[in-house]
Structures are given as structure tokens and as C-alpha cells.
User: Which sequence fits this backbone?
DNA sequence: AGCACGCCGACT
DNA sequence: GTCGGCGTGCTC
């Protein structure tokens, strides 16, 4: 094989194809598909992935590839295929798909530098620029001390040249070791000759004479309470030697895990696990939907199926939503499988993520627990893929490639002939419908393992509170119940369903709301920096003292953020110890864990937070869960609003009274009769499913129809509309009779970063050629996209309709 | 994307 | 003449 087919790291649709390069002799034996290479691309050099090798090319002026970055492939043949499939499925670029499958640090870092080629006769301007150096980073041109044209001229004249560098971001961690550099008897001699004043050196030498093995430098420094200086002296005398050894960063090094043994399964669990184990043993692909109420022991089923996979020498992937990747969750896996587990989540540093990924790649672990992107873990003998809380929307990636981890998991499960288990107490409607139709194998766990009843749910009608003259955020029932529980030494969790709320700033005089100058959205107030901030473009400005419209000083903060609740609660119940958990208080690394620990140690009576407290937390002493605004999501223009409300209420109810103390849930709402709230309060998933399916059918939404969303954006309002109209027209022309094109309509946020956004929604039952059609239509606008900065993006099966 | 090339008006 | 701005085409 003399030719490499390479996908280059240039994210442009005109480059979305393989480029061929001849393989220099020295790389012929080692180069394999799945390795990263550096290739010349036009005048510069870029990184690329070798997707295949060949003996000939249809292109006749081939260049040689410049370098090979990996010793072994970082993408397996399966992942190479998967990336291709993913790109085509989501209408993304191949390069974007491959990048999404790998840790950030494996991405290339591009640098340019200037080299002076002659030591004489540079103009004084350039001489000053180089300042005695032969190589200068290109960015120094921006300092403005040298004119760009001068440099350009010098490049043309051959006095200077530009180097295009492709650097790796990989940082490896090393530990330094010390060992004696000479035979013990020679050290002995040196010790005799040593000055009496060099006490520390003597101690060190004595130590190494007695113990001539290698030892960590850090340990030595600690043991003898000394510094590098002393040791360096001994090294420079040639008595000791230091060397560095690469180590993996281990984010869980400090934590002790008590090993747990498999638990006895209930008969229900037993029934549910049996068919999964069969599939593992038969090496057969099947998708299971494990529908189990909170506390029914889904995790134990995961653990025991994984054990079977491990025993067979195969590997397992467990996906968990980002927000429930808490230490509690991780511990359960580490406790069962010890160091055989790698964990991948966003809380790790880039280096830590890379190290965990490498433990997978080098077959050092058999289990990965991680968020969405862990579905790409480079295992080669997958025995099972588990997706916990499969209904969670965070499994859908919201930027390119817009994939759903569930689809990827099923595709991989099919390839590896292994089962995929989707677990949830409140399955996504799509999943349950498939299970109901027999596409997925449905397994139900209806009982909690401890036989405890689910806590009672009280729905409080907040309209009545208002009529009764209670204008606070807390109903009388909630307030009384909180006081009662806290006086008994029990704990309370309060959930603010914040979606749909933000803390914006409004003038009470003229009603002016401060909006982002670049986006059509109100700015959000951030207390700690006292700034207004745009969540879409990161624009920031200080909070105005006076209204910019009418100069009034009656500026007020609106909305119902956790901060405001905290203040209101402190006024209402001044004695209470309160912990607030939201984006603001959990930004710092480890803050999340610290807050939870504080609560677990009963250093607070109330934990107040957003969605992130609804998942997986398990506190013995919590007996009351209050949902402050259950219907805040229901009014959003989202056909999944009811589903999300039902899911959230069910999840959060599972947080109360999981142990000996009986629990209670209080749900505050302005729409107590809404079926999602009413049925969630009765834990009736089946009724909810049927009711919601009726709605979806009536309004022609998934799972009855598929959706695809095309978004068009341009800085010129008219161009955006017109293009959107043309696209809609084209779509109408070619789609089937029963397919509907909605729009163009302005996106819910009509302008972001000074670009106007319009969208067309495609609703269809069966459109096998839709991807090809959309591609064809987009290609017609290729010219405008490049020359006039028109952007068209496509989301197949969108979750967020904006 | 990011670079070079080529055309054009403007200016030391 | 030469500088720098922008539109256009190409990248194995």
C-alpha cells in the first residue's frame, strides 16, 4: 500500500472528502487506517485522519504525507465506519464526526513561525523584529512594530520563510524518580570524602547505600525534608541519577472504595435481567427498554449484566446524564469493579480525560462510565451498552455533529452483536412507543426493592394561595410542612424548575427590559459580578444605575432565580440553614461534591436547586421535596413540555423518603388539572403515555412523525427570509404528499450574534431520500454560503426547536 | 477554513 | 511605481 486516503482537518463542505497522499518509504510498514497524520494542504500543513490505504489514486499530482502522529491507530476500523455513518446521518462533515469521537487533546494545534534565512542585510525594521532570533512566532506580527507588507516582501525575496507547524496538545504527566548512579561501594567512598557541613547530602547518600532501588523524588524530598537543590548537587556530582516516568493522572486516586458484592435480586429483577444475560451469552443484538420506578434496582441490574460481560472478557459502556455523574454514581461502579472502570465526564481536566480515554484504548479497563461522548469509547469487544435515564435530553448533542447517543449506541450494538439496555423510570415517549410495538424488548420493574411505597404527592393550587392573600413563592402547606420537618431534624429539598425563567432587568417606570445589542434576548443578571450577560453571545455590560430609556432609577430585577428564592426563604424562615445549588455555586471544580457532602452531613436543613438536584441523589434524612413551580415548563413552545414536566416531577419525587422515614412531595402549580402534573402525582406512567400519545397523534408530532429542522441565518434580515423561502419552496417540490413543511418562521430567538435566523420544519412519516434532498438543496446555496456568509444548518430529529 | 493570486483605486 | 483592500479559486 503506497497511498493513504485522508480526511483533513478543514471543516468546510467543499473539503468534505478524502484526499490522497503517497506514503513515504519510511512510513509504509507502520501506517494504518485510523492514525493521525500531518499532510501538506495547499501552502500549509494540516492534521488528518487516515481512513483507508490504497495502491492507486485517480488523482495524478499526489503529494507525500509529511508525518505520522500515532504509533497505533486511535480510531478502530469500527469507529472509522461509525464516523462516516454519523456524518452522513446527521448531515455533518466527516472531520467533525471524527473529532467528536476523540478527546480534545488529540486535536491539532496550528502555529506559524517566521524564520530568517540570511544573517546579513535585513532591513533595520526586520532586524529589530527578529532581535537576534532565527525563529519568531507569527503572532508577534500583531505587535505592530513591523509592517506586514515588509515581511511579505522579504518572504517573496527569499530572506524570510514561513513555517506551518502542527502541534500536538497532548500533555503527558510524569513523575520523577531518583536512583543511585554508582555502585554502593563508590557511594560509600564519596560519603567519606564529603564535607562535614553537608549533612543533608550525607543523609541522602546513606539512604541510597542502604536502599539502592529507585524511589520517587517527591517521597525523598518529604522524607528528608529537603529540596531539589540538595538533590541536584548530588546529581551533578554524578552520585545520583534522576529519570522521569510517564504516569496517568488518576482523578480518583484519593478515594477509597469499599468493595461491594452483587446483591440478591428480587424476582422482578431476576425476570428482567434474564433475557439480557441471554443476549450477552448468545452474542446477539437486541435493544431492551428497562422501565423501572425509582428505587426498583435498575443499577444492580446494570452491575450484574456488566459482571457477566467482564467474565466473558468483553467490555461495557455505561452512559449516564452529565448532571447525574455524581461521585455517588461513580462510586457504585468503582466499588463493584474497582480499577477496571474508566470515568469520562466534563468535570475532568483535558489531561485527565485523555488519560481515562487511553486506559480504554490500551485495554487497561473493561468498563467505561461516562456522559454522552463516552458512547464512542474505543472498545473492540463490546458486550453491552447501557444508557441510564435514557429519556434525558442531554444525550442529544446540540452542536455539530448533532447526534443522539441512543442512536449511536444502537448502531454500535448492532455492529458488536451485543445488547443495548435503555433504562428509565420515565422512558422517552419515542422509546416506550417502540417497546410497545415490539421493536424494543420491554422489561418492567414496578416494585421498589425495599418495598417502601412511593412518597405521597400533594398538588397545591397556587391560584388559591393568591386568593387567600398569600403572595409569596411558598404555599401555606409547603411552609408548614417545611417547619414541621425541620423542627424534627429532618431535611428538605426544594426544586426550582428554572427553565423558562431568567433574572432580567426591567425599569419599573417605563417597562424597558435590557436586551443584548447583538441578540433578540433579554440580558441575564449575574449577582456576583454585578453584570448583565447574554447567554448566547457572552456579551457583558455593567448593571445600569439609571434606565437608559427614561433615566429613572427604579431599576428592578425580575424573574425567579434561585438567588431570589434564597432571599425570600431567608426572610420567611430566618433560622433555617440553607444550601443553594445552581450554576453559580457549582462552577468551581469540586464545588458540586462539597455542597452535597455538606448536605449529607446535615450541615443544612434545606437544599435549594435547579434540575441538577433532581437526579440520583440519595439522602437518608430527606423527607420532604418541594417543587416550587411545577408548570414553568408547560408554557414553553415545545411539544415535549408535558413529557418533560412529567419526567421531572417523577424524578424529583423519588428523592423523598427513600429510607426508613416516610416522605412527602409538595408540588406547587397554577395548573393542577394538567394531565402531566396530575398523573405524575399518581405515578401513573402508563396513563400518561396513552394521554400524551393521543396529543402527539392529534398534533402530528413524534413518535407519529419525524422532524427535521433547517435553520438559515444571515446578517441581512431580507436575505435570511428569502433564502428560507426558497428552501421551503424547493422542499415542497420534492417531498411526498403526506410530508409537511412548516415555515419559514423566525427562530424562537430571531437574532443571535447579529445574525437573523429563520427556520423550516419538516414533518414526515417516510422520506427515505430526505438527507440526499437536503444536501442537494444546500449545495445550490454553496456560493452564497461562502461568498456572502450565509449559514444553513440542519438538525435531524431536533430536541431543541431553536 | 485559510491562503495566494490578481485586479483595482489611492497615495508616498 | 507600490501599498493594501477585496473578490475568486484551490487545496490530493
Assistant:
Amino acid at each position: 500500500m503506497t497511498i493513504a486516503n485522508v480526511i483533513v482537518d478543514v471543516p468546510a463542505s467543499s473539503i468534505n472528502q478524502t484526499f490522497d497522499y503517497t506514503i513515504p518509504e519510511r512510513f509504509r510498514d507502520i501506517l494504518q487506517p485510523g492514525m493521525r497524520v500531518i499532510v501538506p494542504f495547499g501552502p500549509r500543513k494540516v492534521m488528518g485522519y487516515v481512513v483507508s490505504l490504497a495502491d492507486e489514486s485517480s488523482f495524478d499530482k499526489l503529494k507525500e504525507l509529511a508525518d505520522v502522529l500515532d504509533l497505533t491507530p486511535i480510531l478502530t476500523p469500527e469507529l472509522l465506519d461509525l464516523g462516516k455513518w454519523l456524518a452522513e446521518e446527521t448531515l455533518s462533515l466527516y472531520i467533525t464526526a471524527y473529532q467528536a469521537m476523540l478527546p480534545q487533546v488529540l486535536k491539532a494545534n496550528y502555529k506559524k513561525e517566521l524564520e530568517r534565512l540570511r544573517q546579513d542585510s535585513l532591513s533595520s525594521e526586520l532586524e529589530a523584529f527578529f532581535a537576534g532570533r532565527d525563529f519568531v512566532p507569527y503572532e508577534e506580527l500583531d505587535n505592530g512594530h513591523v509592517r506586514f507588507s515588509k515581511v511579505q516582501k522579504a518572504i517573496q525575496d527569499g530572506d524570510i520563510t514561513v513555517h506551518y507547524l502542527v502541534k500536538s496538545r497532548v500533555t503527558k504527566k510524569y513523575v520523577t524518580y531518583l536512583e543511585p548512579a554508582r555502585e554502593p561501594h563508590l557511594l560509600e567512598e564519596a560519603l567519606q570524602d564529603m564535607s562535614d557541613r553537608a549533612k543533608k547530602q550525607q543523609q541522602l547518600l546513606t539512604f541510597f547505600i542502604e536502599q539502592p532501588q529507585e524511589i520517587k523524588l517527591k517521597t525523598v524530598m518529604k522524607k528528608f525534608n529537603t529540596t531539589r537543590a540538595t538533590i541536584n548537587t548530588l546529581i551533578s556530582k554524578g552520585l545520583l541519577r534522576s529519570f522521569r516516568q510517564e504516569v496517568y493522572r488518576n482523578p480518583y486516586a484519593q478515594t477509597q472504595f469499599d468493595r461491594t458484592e452483587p446483591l440478591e435480586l428480587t424476582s422482578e429483577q431476576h425476570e428482567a435481567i434474564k433475557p439480557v444475560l441471554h443476549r450477552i451469552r448468545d452474542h446477539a443484538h437486541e435493544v431492551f427498554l428497562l422501565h423501572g420506578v425509582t428505587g426498583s434496582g435498575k443499577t444492580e441490574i446494570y452491575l450484574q449484566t456488566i459482571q457477566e460481560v467482564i467474565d466473558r472478557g468483553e467490555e461495557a459502556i455505561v452512559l449516564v446524564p452529565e448532571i447525574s455523574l455524581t461521585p455517588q454514581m461513580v462510586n457504585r461502579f468503582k466499588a463493584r469493579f474497582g480499577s477496571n472502570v474508566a470515568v469520562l465526564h466534563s468535570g475532568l481536566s483535558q489531561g485527565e480525560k485523555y488519560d481515562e480515554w487511553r486506559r480504554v484504548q490500551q485495554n487497561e479497563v473493561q468498563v467505561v462510565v461516562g456522559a454522552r461522548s463516552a458512547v464512542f469509547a474505543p472498545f473492540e469487544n463490546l458486550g453491552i451498552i447501557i444508557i441510564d435515564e435514557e429519556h434525558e435530553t442531554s444525550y442529544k448533542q446540540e452542536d455539530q455533529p448533532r447526534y443522539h447517543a441512543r442512536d449511536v449506541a444502537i448502531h454500535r450494538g448492532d455492529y458488536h452483536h451485543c445488547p443495548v439496555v435503555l433504562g428509565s423510570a420515565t422512558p422517552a415517549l419515542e422509546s416506550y412507543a417502540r417497546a410497545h410495538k415490539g421493536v424494543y424488548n420491554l422489561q418492567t420493574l414496578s416494585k421498589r426493592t425495599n418495598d417502601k411505597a412511593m412518597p405521597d404527592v400533594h398538588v397545591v393550587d397556587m391560584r388559591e394561595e393568591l386568593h387567600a392573600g398569600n403572595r409569596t413563592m411558598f404555599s401555606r402547606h409547603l411552609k408548614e410542612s417545611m417547619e414541621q420537618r425541620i423542627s424534627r431534624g429532618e431535611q428538605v429539598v426544594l426544586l426550582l424548575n428554572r427553565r423558562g425563567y431568567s433574572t432580567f432587568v426591567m425599569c419599573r417606570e417605563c417597562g424597558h427590559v435590557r436586551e443584548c445589542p447583538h441578540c433578540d434576548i433579554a440580558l441575564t443578571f449575574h449577582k456576583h459580578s454585578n453584570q448583565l450577560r447574554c447567554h448566547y453571545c457572552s456579551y457583558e455590560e455593567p448593571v445600569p444605575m439609571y434606565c437608559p430609556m427614561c433615566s429613572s432609577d427604579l431599576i428592578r430585577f425580575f424573574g425567579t432565580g434561585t438567588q431570589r428564592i434564597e432571599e425570600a426563604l431567608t426572610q420567611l424562615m430566618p433560622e433555617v440553614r440553607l444550601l443553594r445549588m445552581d450554576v453559580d455555586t457549582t462552577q468551581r471544580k469540586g464545588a458540586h461534591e462539597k455542597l452535597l457532602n455538606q448536605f449529607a452531613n446535615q450541615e443544612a436543613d434545606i437544599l435549594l436547586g435547579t434540575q441538577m438536584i433532581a437526579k440520583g441523589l440519595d439522602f437518608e434524612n430527606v423527607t420532604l421535596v418541594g417543587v416550587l413551580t411545577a408548570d414553568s415548563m408547560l408554557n414553553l413552545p415545545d411539544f415535549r413540555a408535558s413529557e418533560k414536566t412529567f419526567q421531572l416531577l417523577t424524578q424529583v419525587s423519588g428523592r423523598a423518603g427513600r429510607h426508613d422515614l416516610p416522605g412527602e412531595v409538595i408540588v406547587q402549580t397554577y395548573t393542577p388539572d394538567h394531565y402531566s402534573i396530575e398523573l405524575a402525582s399518581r405515578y401513573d406512567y402508563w396513563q400518561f403515555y396513552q394521554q400524551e400519545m393521543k396529543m402527539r397523534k392529534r398534533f402530528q408530532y413524534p413518535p407519529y412523525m419525524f422532524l427535521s429542522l433547517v435553520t438559515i441565518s444571515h446578517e441581512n434580515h431580507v436575505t435570511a427570509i428569502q433564502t428560507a423561502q426558497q428552501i421551503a419552496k424547493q422542499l415542497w417540490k420534492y417531498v411526498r404528499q403526506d410530508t409537511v413543511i412548516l415555515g419559514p418562521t423566525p427562530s424562537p430567538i430571531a437574532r443571535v450574534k447579529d445574525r437573523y435566523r429563520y427556520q423550516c420544519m419538516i414533518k414526515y412519516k417516510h422520506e427515505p431520500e430526505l438527507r440526499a434532498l437536503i444536501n442537494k438543496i444546500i449545495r445550490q446555496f454553496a456560493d452564497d454560503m461562502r461568498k456572502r456568509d450565509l449559514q444553513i444548518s440542519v438538525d435531524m430529529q431536533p430536541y431543541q426547536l431553536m
About this structure: Residues 9-12, 14-15, 41-44, 46 of chain A lie near DNA strand B (CB under 10 Å from a C1'). Residues 459 and 667 of chain A are 5 Å apart (CA to CA). The first helix of chain A runs from residue 77 to 90. Chain A has six domains: 3-107, 110-168, 268-445, 456-499+561-696, 503-558, 706-795.
